Amino acid sequence: MICSMTRNTQFLKRLMLFVGVILIAGCERSYDKSANPAPQTVVQQPVSVPVSVAVVDHSAIVKRIESHRGQVVVLDCWSTSCPPCVKEFPGLVDLKNDYGDTVACLSLSFDYEGFGVPEDVLPPVKTFLEQVSAGDIENLLNRDEADALYKKMNITSVPVVMVWDRNGTLIQQFDDEYASEKLGRSFTYDDVRRAVDQALSSQSKE
């Protein structure tokens, strides 16, 4: 009887020792996993192109447009004080993203109204352009006083969007008059895109 109890005691000791070894090994493995976590995938965020704005007069605007001969050109005339301009401007950014180098996209701010110097209105213009990620757009600010530039460009107000074909011919000017007479509503960048597509398709057949 004593011998049997001794054997049972020894068996229980061995069992407890075996269980203890297993528990220690498990803890070590858990420690190793926490000490050396699995490598995590780093998602690269797209880097936005910095926004730049050139202060230009009418002659420089004409030269900029002419420099893109061979591309369809879209010029968005706008102002931060014009709610419809601000609403539609992201359409220019989307257009550039979709068409790439096939279309040259320019923006011309009419924020300078003749008080002080053009550089005085540059900060709010640039802030807005940064908010809409317009780094890929060729951004311009009028050096001529706004009313004088309206006359030189033969427009009466903003927003105005102009489209030139690859030969440098102005094929469409979207403004209040066009919207009223041809569309019966305000123009949008969907209308601008249709004009761009027509310019691209017609000249691809030539």
Q: Your description of this structure?
A:
With 206 residues, the chain is an alpha/beta fold. The protein has a single domain (53-204), classed as Glutaredoxin, CATH 3.40.30.10. 49% of the residues lie in helices and 16% in strands. The protein has 8 helices and 6 strands; from the N terminus they run H-E-H-E-H-H-E-H-E-H-E-E-H-H. It has a 6-stranded mixed sheet with strand order 1-4-3-2-5-6. Helix 5 links the parallel strand 3 (103-109) and strand 4. The radius of gyration is 34 Å and the shape is globular.
Chain-wise SSE layout:
Layout (H helix, E strand, L loop, with lengths): L1 H34 L17 E4 L1 H9 L5 E7 L4 H6 L1 H10 L3 E7 L12 H10 L6 E5 L3 H7 L7 E5 L5 E5 L1 H8 L5 H16 L2
Parallel strand pairs: 1-4, 2-3, 3-4
Antiparallel strand pairs: 2-5, 5-6
Strand order of the largest sheet: 1-4-3-2-5-6
What's the count of strands?
6
CATH architecture: 3-Layer(aba) Sandwich
Class from secondary-structure proportions:
alpha/beta
Which stretches of 5+ consecutive residues score pLDDT under 50? 1-7, 27-35
